[in-house]
Each structure stands twice: as C-alpha cells, then as structure tokens.
Design brief:
The chain is α/β, with parallel strands linked by helices. The chain contains 15 helices and 11 strands. Helices cover 37% and strands 13% of the residues.
Length: 493
Amino acid sequence: MTDLTNLGVKDIRDGVAKGDFTAREVASAFNAAVADAAALNAFIVTTPDYALAAADAVDSKRAAGEPLGAMAGVPIGMKDLFATDGVQTTAASHILEGFTPRYESTVSQKLWDAGAGMLGKLNLDQFAMGSSNETSYFGNVASPWKKAGSNAAMSPGGSSGGSSSAVAARIAPAATGTDTGGSIRQPAAFTGICGIKPTYGRCSRWGVVAFASSLDQAGPMARSVEDCAIMLGAMAGFDPKDSTSLDMPVPDWEAALNSDLRGKKVGIPREYRMEGTDQAILDSWEQGKVWLKDAGAEIVDVSLPHTKYALPAYYIVAPAEASSNLARYDGVRYGLRDLPDGSGLQDMYAATRAAGFGDEVKRRILIGTYVLSAGFYDAYYTQAQKVRALVARDFERAFEQCDVILAPTTPTASFPLGSMNEDPLTMYLNDVFAVPASLAGLPAMSVPATINADGLPLGLQLVGRPFDEQSVLNAGLAIQQRADFTAKPDKWW
C-alpha cells in the first residue's frame, strides 16, 4: 500500500470511496505521523480519538452504501483560532489557555459535516499576530525545511505557521488557516504548499477568534490547487450568524478547474518590483509569466499606484480593530484571571492583560488604542481607511485590463527563527505583497514555484476579482502543472 501520509485530500477522498483503503487506516497513519513530529511543535493539542471517530463514521457510511461528503475520510489540522466543541481553543495565548468552548465554529462544523476528521489544534502566532510563528505562548513552530548547509530552525511563516508546517511535513494532508494580511499565503510560500484566501465573506467568521474583523478570512492550506478547491468548497457558504457572510451560492470550484488560459489576461503590477526583494523571487516571478503565457494567457502590465501605502494603512487598521476585539479579554468572564491580593477591578484588568498577552499582542493593542484615541483618530485611522479605499480602487481599475494578477507572495524566502525579533518593522515587511489584496477583500492564492539556491521553496501569488476564486484557482493550476514542484523537506524531526 502507498504510504498514506503522502496522499492529499483528493487522493484520500477518492481512495476511501473506492475502497482502496479505509478511513480508519488513513486516520491511524496520520495520527502516528503527528505523534512522531513533536519536534516541529505544529500542534498545541492533538485529538487522535476525534480523527478515528470521524473515520469510523465515514467507513460505516460507505459500508451502508450512503453518499459520502466532499472531505470524507480526510483527517485535517484545525488552526487553534477556530472554536471546537469540547476541545481547548486558545488562539495560542496564555489568556485563553484552558478555554474549552461548548460550541463549534461554522467553518469547522462544515468540514466535519463533509466527512473530515480532526487531528488536533494547530499552533499559530498569538491571536494571529505575527509573520514567523514566534509569538505563540506555546513556543515557536519550526518549518520542516532547512537551509542547505545549516541546521538552524527556519520559520514556517505566520500566523498560520502550524498549519503550513504540518501540511509541508506530511503530518496532515490539509489544514485550515486564517488570512488577515497574508497569514495563509506567506506561510504557504515559505513551506512549498498551496493556500488560498477567498473573497472576504466567503467563509463564515462565526466561532473564529477575532483579530481584525474587516480583514480576517478563513481558507484552506494543502499541497495542491485541486485539494484547496475541494476543501474551500466544503468550508464556504452563507452563515446567518455572521453579518459579513456572503449570501451567494458556493460554486463547484473543483469541477470547474481548467488550466487552459487562452483568452485570459494576466496583469503584472509594476509597483511590486520593490527594492529589497530577493533576486531569486524576481526570477521566479519572470518564470511565472512564462508558465502562464505557455498556458495561453496574455501578459499585460498594470498599475497599482497606492501599493506603497498599503502596508502602513494595514498596520493602522488591523491594530485598531485588534485593540477593540481584544478588549473582551479582561479576566471577568472567561480565560485567565490574575487577581493580586487586595486589588480592585482595574488592578485585575491590568494584571490579567499584562500576564495573558504576549509582547507582539501588547504592541498592536497599544498602536490600535493610540490611533483610535480622540486626538489621533482622524489623523491616522480615518486616513488609513481612505488609503484602503484607494487600494481597492486600484485593483478595480487593474481588473478592467486583466482577469488575474500575478505577483510574488513574499519578498524573501524563509528565514531562521530569531533572526528578525529585534526589528518588528522588518518583520512586518514580509507582508508587503500580501496586504493589498487583504485590504481590498480579494481572493488571492500562493502556489509553490521554485527552490532557491539555499534549497528553500518560493511561492507565486495570484489575485482575482471579487467572488472569482475560479480564475485564481485555474491560473494556480496552470502554474502547478508547469512548475512540477515535487520537492519536499528531508525528514529531520
């Protein structure tokens, strides 16, 4: 039998349906792989019994001749931002350590309904704030990749670093991620996997721990475009419990996958050729143009003139929303409570939040509170929202000339853990290519392209019109077929 942990979503689903192997065999194989990979620190909590129970339910359905769901028999990792009934949900923070929800997030429930099982809750940057997966209360996540000639632990990207590490290491065939300013796409690029952030509102935010409510969006991370299309179809859909949810039918993205791009135009934004971008990244971008041209697409230049303002605007809007969202963690209702002897209510608030939040979370709360304060609201927050509107308008105008945009996902390949901790601004620059699509709420995907001279993966990003995930997936499939990215990390864990 093929090593089951080398199979992706589609192959597992189809193999279970055909009887090539049972769902329990798959779940057992991945449970063992997860247990064997503790050195990656990709999981905060493992749930092998949940994976086996879901697998047994799928096997029983198949034996009874009942129809199977789109994710039947596929065990996945669940980013620890999604509330899971009866399983600890922490957002990788101390302040929520031990919190066990009595409800299920809409996205996770949809996946369970589609036949998926849960291997465990994946590590992340605390409250999804970070680009390297070094801000978790539960410790750093290590990438399964190593730089050639070095034994240094590498960053799996952030905030969905546990998700990217698990999928790249073959200890999960797929995982959920969330993307606020690139937190699906950047980790996917760092670890040589695929990840798509759908149009804002495609996937319900209900039951997902909030960072920045107008930006947060769930999406799938897997090793192929096809697997992302399947999983996104299971995750997406209207949810009356989420006021930002799109009341639109969910297309069958898998069935409509087509890498023939004849008649399509691919835009190349001239503003994305930024100083400081690695030459290997620029070379892979050029190669991406060649691949899409070979698929039949016409390559056209487009302009996104407000790109240079997107990152500063994001780091005003996102912290502002974070400072509001995280005000609920005060030690009164749930989570950590630090009550010093003889202290009053305000003292408890201060002690709880000081002990419960990490440095990066505190930094963003302080920035957000500052820009929302009476004397600075118009100078910072209002201006940032105006810039956001201009960034969205840039994309609207660009899409009058093209169907999809091709760009780098990140300015560099992965870097060693700890190498950027002294300079938060340099760390923030990792999101420079990802943030504009987030501000505009557009579907965007990272697809693995090449390996650099250090033996590390590089990703290419595709951005589409609102609601047009199909064009993004189709262009991603065209790159995937031509890149033939088969590299995988050597097992060291």
